[in-house]
Amino acid sequence: MKDKFYNYIQLLQDRITKKLETIDGKAVFKEDIWKRPEGGGGRTRVIEKGQVFEKGGVNISGVHGKLPDTMQKYFGVEDANFFACGLSLVLHPKNPMAPTVHANWRYFEMYDKNGNIADQWFGGGLDLTPYYLFNEDATHFHKTCKTACDKHDPEFYKKYKARCDDYFYNSHRNEGRGIGGLFFDYCKATPNMSMENWYDFVTEVANSFLDAYTPIIEKRKDLPYTDHQINWQQIRRGRYVEFNLVHDKGTLFGLKTNGRIESILMSLPPQVQWVYDHHPEPNSEEERLINVLQNPIDWV
Amino acid sequence: MKDKFYNYIQLLQDRITKKLETIDGKAVFKEDIWKRPEGGGGRTRVIEKGQVFEKGGVNISGVHGKLPDTMQKYFGVEDANFFACGLSLVLHPKNPMAPTVHANWRYFEMYDKNGNIADQWFGGGLDLTPYYLFNEDATHFHKTCKTACDKHDPEFYKKYKARCDDYFYNSHRNEGRGIGGLFFDYCKATPNMSMENWYDFVTEVANSFLDAYTPIIEKRKDLPYTDHQINWQQIRRGRYVEFNLVHDKGTLFGLKTNGRIESILMSLPPQVQWVYDHHPEPNSEEERLINVLQNPIDWV
Fold it and tell me: B-chain residues within 8 Å CB-CB of A29?
């Protein structure tokens, strides 16, 4: 399973970066191959200062070895060996009318003392963070998520949409990071879902990423915008930074377990502002966004 | 003691904000008085878009009531009441030749079931974060710290300088946030130092803040600079954000105990950049700064 999934994310990284370069039309991804001293490594691909993408990364990694102490504590195990691989992507478009998107699909194995698999699971999802909210974009994104889910279980979309709203929540701001999507974790074998079934589900969701995002970026990338709207985008990007550095478990694990810092923090936006006590104008588009982030909508 | 120290920080806030407005020459502090629903409140003063200060805050607060659950756990007590007050300031100058400065002085009381003081202590310090390093500025700042310390104990400067280097450390980047200053905490009564003695020490340090910082800002605020230097300033401000959101105990306590978010996060810089895998040119001034941040210097 680990070889099968790692091969899959390698091909997926190629497919996604190729498509994004075509959309951008100017910038190309810069590739960094890195090794993890304790075992494994990754292939980081970052795009910067494009016509469409101001900054973004589509990274894969496959790491293994002794489970770091902090993770042993977290999982309640001792001296376990592990393997983990996944693809993570974040894209910050230049145009404030175009939303930031994040996605991640990952697979994890833990081993017993004889080297046999003691536990294994998939996790991941995708979610959208608009600066200006186009309802049709949110609906398209969520419908694409639902279509992928429905092929595997009629309950998945509802369940994983709710988990996404829960997880990507800036509790200190009382608002969601964005308008959600899917979030699932610890997807383990059950009588209904074998690991093969989970593989089919996760790759179905991952395969639908370009269908979910490319029509949106194509529609918004060339819209006109003002300095006021850029300011708003940069202020909202500040909230993105706050979520990733204060609340995101993946980022904090990475920072505290000697991960490759530049690959982890590629998720942070390029140009960001913090303005004291900023509030949007009453009845503005900016205020409408905040209202939706505070009260998630059923987009499908 | 609590009334005496709270009166002191009120007057100190006036003194510092008045001086900073004179230095800026254009922007003035905007004042927000706020109440904490559970008891107490504060007076937040923020300056933005000045000629000298791009963003900054000089805040005081005095809060009391039942110790929040997370802090009970932290201090290992149950159902205690507390009082805490302090002044916190952060100044982000516009000119990249001028350093960011941070300072905080605080006093804490915890009560037993009869309302008597069960524990009390002072804490605080001040520290400097340059973007371009002028050795004479660092030396002046540290000498001013040492002069204040030496009046109270010949060991204090060495001890609290080392603690400052330890505390303001971005472990995930293997570098200090800045070039340090003083950091002390849990300053409790001992046979050598009564609480009155600690009050004298802490106010001596606080009184020296303007002596430590104003000659530096006066000297650097009008130096010429380039776009390249602004970029570097904004990238380094990203590290400031990383420290405050990932490592700073004060910020995280505030965010997780329902503090006034805007007063806590006034510390974040106005314009910030994250660039993937950025490295300064070999033998540049930017590289010299990084070397010093990785290997703290004895400036006195």
Answer: none
